[in-house]
Amino acid sequence: MRNEMLLEFDALSVNESFARMAVASFITPLNPTLEELADVKTAVSEAVTNAIIHGYDNFWGCGKHGDMPPASQEIHPGRVRLTCRTEGDLLHICVEDKGKGIEDVERAMEPLFTTRPEENRSGMGFSFMEAFMDDLEVESRPGEGTLVRMHKRIGVGPWIDA
Q1: 85 tagged catalytic
Q2: Of residues 152, 34, 41, 140, the one with CA closest to residue 97
Q3: Does residue 100 contact residue 115 with C-beta atoms inside 8 Å?
Q4: Theoretical Cys-Cys bridge with 36: which of 21, 32, 47, 61, CB 3.0 to 4.6 Å?
């Protein structure tokens, strides 16, 4: 059976948990194990967080003088698009932003590399995505945004056979 969903939301950090739970709910008909569910939720969380934090310079919604407005008044120029599709036991996830893009994708995918060390970012987002999903593809163009594609087969892990 084939099924697809599309979500588009503001590039606000509070929406990361929404995206993670939406994908978890979407894949329940595939009857994932708890391990598979945790893997998918972690990968989605990392991809969405990267889009929000690294894709858009106005992430914090600061005013002209750097002051922080109340959360209810934050204005963000960006949106994140999340697409999920299932085909049989195969899950396809795309997370896309139209933010500033990545100049060197290969470098950005190196473990521990971060462009935001002042925010105590670990630089492990892409590493977690690679570890928890079967396949990861990243396309990015500076000034145009980033597209992260992830794929995972559900119900075929080694713990299923045991």
Answers
A1: no
A2: 140
A3: no
A4: 32
Evaluate if residue 158 carries a pLDDT over 70. no
At a CB cut-off of 8 Å and minimum separation 6, what does 124 contact?
Answer: 111, 112
CATH code: domain of residue 52: 3.30.565.10
The reported pLDDT for the residue numbered 53 is 84
Residues making up the chain, counted from first to last: 162
| Whether residue 121 lies in the annotated active site | yes
Pairing assessment for the beta strands 145-153 and 79-87 based on DSSP bridges: unpaired
Of residues 16, 36, 50, 96, which has the active-site annotation?
50
Which residue range(s) make up the domain with 31?
2-161
What ranges in the chain are assigned the alpha helix state H? 15-26, 34-55, 105-108, 125-132, 158-161
* Pairing mode of beta strands 90-97, 145-153: antiparallel
Task: Say whether 76 sits in a helix, a strand or coil.
Answer: coil
